[in-house]
Task: structure prediction
Amino acid sequence: HGPVGVARLRTYYGSRVNRGTKKERFREASGKIIREVLMQLERAGYVTKTKRGRKISAEGMSFLDNTAHELKLLQTVTETPKKE
Result:
């Protein structure tokens, strides 16, 4: 998926805006919030900055994999068969 910049994330998280009696239209999401989140992830070491945007680092991928594994374990524990 390659590097991702703020502009692409703004488009991805944008949505339609209700403008009253006028037709709805697409608006991009707030850039400041996305920028701040990316900077925090960068400081934590989960994302690295490249020339064309930001990429997830090896440490970030490991964190995501571990979190997904823990969630999968929790899901299998809570899914007990029903007694009828």
About this structure: Helices lie at 6-13, 31-44, 58-78.
